[in-house]
């Protein structure tokens, strides 16, 4: 079986899955990169040299070979191709050969946008017209299925998917928190939709209650200056530190040294790889249920805590619970790590996608996995108009 993954460029979030699939089928796996990585992402430390991976083919250097792989492979996975190969995609999707489309939400800023006539025509040509073909949707986020349900696409062919952390990373051994300072971490771009101010506000509350803690911000963005000013205003300079942008390995290492991970993004967060990375580290995660990864990964009260609807009070309640029941920090962190190690990891995703594909190619009706990647993506309704009006409702 030949499997080809096509996307704009290979990046750190895709490599674990690609390496896992390469380990399963060897030289029968290919990754086609359709464009060089943007300079902005390279500056952020996310550059990957395609030459380091033997299975990567560059469409812009060997177009004929890549066309052949896209049209002739037994299985093709289309990620984000920026419209650069749309005609070729259309030919593959219409071919009757097994194809997967990997997608985040298409209506993150509001499902009412689905009524746009121009948008509906585009979605018809991109998605609806293939509804009876063997084209399956890999939903990178819990609310993706709901968006595509609106346009009646991929009926009974929506599968849970996501981004998978690198399991080779060094992870600090967790120590009991009793009798020592509790370490909190917040990781990501410091922008409005991620609500980093929630972390500063909860730090203020923790200090007022006399708890011994430290909070580390990893990342940069247009909200950093305001956050630093608020930190000084609240007298939290000894408790809060700002590390700025770190390369992926150092960011992961900083996260692994924490006990609690705060993840405060709103519904505009399509996935949120910080969640599964923090879970892999064995952190107790307090996360917004609105972010795409959270309903898939977090079972509230078992392997972490989640709060709904961007409600700071609910968020604060969940964080305080961990300080009042410190035994839960290690318990939730241990269960979180188990979730990643046993279910939500690249190796399991590759294995399940390969199994699903083999069943199809053998002429069987392919079966959903029982849990995790390639299990059925149920329709979960995202934030409605009222909720969106509460936010600065646009992607940054």
| Helix content class | 25-40%
Strand order of the largest sheet: 3-2-1-4-5-6-7
Helix segment count? 15
Beta percentage is 5-15%
What does this entry look like structurally?
- With 396 residues, this protein is an alpha/beta fold.
- The chain has helices at 15-25, 39-43, 63-72, 86-93, 117-126, 144-150, 197-208, 224-233, 248-256, 273-280, 294-297, 312-324, 327-342, 346-361, 385-388, and strands at residues 3-7, 29-33, 56-58, 75-78, 99-103, 135-139, 158-160, 182-187, 213-218, 240-242, 260-263, 284-288, 305-307.
- Strands 3-2-1-4-5-6-7 form a 7-stranded parallel β-sheet, sandwiched between helices. Strands 10-9-8-11-12-13 form a 6-stranded parallel β-sheet, with helices on both faces.
- Helix 1 packs across helix 14 (346-361), helix 7 crosses helix 12 and helix 10 crosses helix 13 (327-342).
- The longest helix has 16 residues, at 327-342.
- The two termini are 40 Å apart.
- The model has no long low-confidence stretch (mean pLDDT 94).
């Amino acid at each position: 079986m030949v499997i080809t993954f096509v996307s704009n460029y290979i990046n750190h979030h895709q490599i674990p899955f690609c390496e896992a699939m390469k380990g399963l089928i060897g030289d029968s796996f290919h990754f086609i990169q359709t464009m060089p990585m943007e300079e902005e992402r390279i500056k952020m430390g996310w550059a990957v040299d395609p030459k380091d991976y033997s299975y990567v083919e560059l469409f812009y250097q060997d177009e004929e070979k890549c066309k052949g792989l896209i049209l002739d492979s037994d299985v093709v996975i289309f990620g984000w191709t920026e419209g650069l190969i749309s005609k070729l995609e259309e030919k593959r999707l219409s071919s009757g050969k097994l194809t997967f489309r990997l997608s985040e939400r298409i209506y993150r800023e509001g499902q009412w946008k689905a009524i746009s006539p121009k948008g509906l025509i585009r979605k018809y040509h991109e998605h609806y017209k293939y509804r009876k073909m063997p084209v399956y949707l890999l939903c990178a986020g819990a609310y993706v299925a709901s968006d595509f349900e609106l346009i009646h696409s991929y009926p009974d062919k929506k599968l849970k998917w996501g981004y998978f952390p690198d399991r080779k990373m060094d992870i600090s051994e967790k120590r009991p928190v009793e009798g020592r300072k509790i370490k909190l971490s917040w990781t990501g771009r410091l922008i409005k939709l991620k609500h980093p101010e929630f972390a500063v506000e909860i730090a203020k509350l923790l200090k007022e209650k006399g708890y011994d803690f430290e909070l580390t911000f990893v990342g940069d963005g247009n909200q950093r200056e305001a956050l630093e000013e608020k930190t000084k205003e609240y007298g939290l300079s000894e408790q809060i530190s700002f590390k700025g942008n770190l390369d992926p390995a150092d960011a992961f290492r900083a996260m692994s040294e924490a006990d609690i991970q705060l993840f405060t993004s709103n519904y505009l967060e399509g996935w949120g790889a910080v969640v599964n990375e923090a879970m892999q580290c064995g952190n107790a995660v307090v996360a917004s249920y609105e972010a795409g990864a959270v309903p898939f990964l977090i079972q509230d009260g078992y392997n972490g805590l989640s709060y709904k609807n961007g409600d700071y009070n609910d968020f604060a309640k969940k964080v305080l619970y961990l300080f009042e029941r410190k035994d839960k920090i290690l318990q939730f962190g241990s269960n979180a790590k188990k979730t990643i190690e046993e279910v939500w990891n690249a190796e399991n995703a590759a294995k399940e996608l390969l199994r699903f594909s083999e069943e199809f190619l053998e002429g069987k009706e392919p079966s959903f996995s029982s849990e995790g990647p390639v299990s059925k993506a149920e329709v979960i309704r995202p934030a409605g108009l009222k909720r969106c009006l509460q936010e600065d409702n646009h992607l940054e």
